[in-house]
Structure of Probable multidrug resistance protein NorM:
Amino acid sequence: MDSNTPLVTVLIACIANIAGDLLLVAFFHMGTRGAAIATVAAQLISVLISCARISKMTLPFPLRFRNVRWDGGIIRNILSLGTPIALQDLLVSISFLVIMAIVNSIGLTESAGVGVAEKVCAFIMLVPSAFMQSMSAFVAQNRGAGQTDRAFQGFRSAVAISFVFGVVMFYTAFFHGDLLSGIFAKDAPVIAASADYLKAYGIDCLLTCFLFCFVGFYNGMGKTNFVMVQGILGAFAVRVPVSYLMSRWNPVSLFHIGLATPCSTILQITLCCSYLISLLRKQNTQKRCIT
């Protein structure tokens, strides 16, 4: 199992994305076109680095283009597992676009503040994202080897370790959001708006250490349909409605709007816990039947 490559490639992609934004948007003044180019370029760099790392690994099969063949059964399995994840990511991204549209209707300073905060969040969420990817690989390998108990043990350990990082990220984002925002902005009102929004993300850091490990665990267990459902419910049953209601609550506060994210995470964790209990009961029932 290689958990370092996903961490390295995601880290490099985030750094390249931010560097590209600073270069194309701040220096060359290319606006949204520059931001889009920076994002695509960062993903391309991540892919190239991944290919380079994989080419140097010892694999149980030769990695050659001529060995690539169409296998209908494998393709169907990949689509059945991957489509729900892709759909969830798409819809969750749309929900954040809706939130951005809500913030844009409030004012230019608030919109710029949230934009800066999202850049900071790209770093803040790097660690839980790495745990999620590592958790998926770890659980899938142990599940394939028939070591389900070890997969559950790994999940508990990942949550404990991730929570330590979550506490650090909470403290940094909640109490020092202005320092983080100051890296990407110089205008005092924009920094203040970004710091206000980051306080809500700081609270979410204490929750995502659980949620992202849950998501990685269920992806590794092949329960991607459930992952899709809980993600969509969190986005459109909580995050978007709460953001809209908070934007209508005078005086308008980006902190209150940002609270929609931890509220959504709480619902998703509740759903994940309930589903985990049902899986454990099913596993215990199967063990009793075998004995």
Remarks:
- Residues 72-104 form the longest helix (33 residues).
- Residues 277 and 283 are 10 Å apart (CA to CA).
